[in-house]
Structures are given as C-alpha cells and as structure tokens.
C-alpha cells in the first residue's frame, strides 16, 4: 500500500467553508463519488482542515495511479458534477499549475522511535 499526502486551499469564507464541510459529512456525500474513489484503487482517504487549508491522506492499492484516476474521472458525469460543485469552495494553492487542484506534498521528515536501527 502506498500513502500520498495532498494539499489544497478553500476560499477564505466561513460560510463556504461550513458548506464544504457539510458536503463532506458521511450522510451528505454522493455515493457515486465514494464508488469512484474506491474503483480507482484508493483504499482509505481522510481530509483534515486548518483555517482554509486542506490536507488529504490517501492510502492506495498497488495498481493506483493519478493518471488512471484522472482518466476515470474525466469519463464520469457524476464526478464532473461533484468537481464543478467543489470548485465553488476551493482555490488552487498559489504555486499550483493551470488547472491543478490537490497537490501532492513532499515528505520532509519521518520518525520511527520504536524501529530498531540495524546500523547500531
């Protein structure tokens, strides 16, 4: 299993942020979106928020690729409707390229205090 971390900003508007969170509650999510996420090979997904910054953790199956997910999404009418709705709340990070939303983050630190170091 591979883990990806991604970031995206919301528009800095408390009403829009509240509505975005509304759509991401389990009872309000669209079943077609959940199905598309699982079909792409995403085994677990979590989204966290601080202020207007979002942080996503994805754990994926071995066959997952962002390219395949993008192609599947482009051919799924409900995913396109969802993405259109989400753009009402989202804004790209300042360093994002044209049309980019969620950006993969670079890991810069890792600590495993309970692992043994074979070099000691």
TrEMBL record:
<protein>
    <submittedName>
        <fullName>L-fucose mutarotase</fullName>
    </submittedName>
</protein>
<dbReference type="Pfam" id="PF05336">
    <property type="entry name" value="rhaM"/>
</dbReference>
<dbReference type="InterPro" id="IPR011008">
    <property type="entry name" value="Dimeric_a/b-barrel"/>
</dbReference>
<dbReference type="InterPro" id="IPR052996">
    <property type="entry name" value="Carb_Metab_Mutarotase"/>
</dbReference>
<dbReference type="GO" id="GO:0016857">
    <property type="term" value="F:racemase and epimerase activity, acting on carbohydrates and derivatives"/>
</dbReference>
<dbReference type="InterPro" id="IPR008000">
    <property type="entry name" value="Rham/fucose_mutarotase"/>
</dbReference>
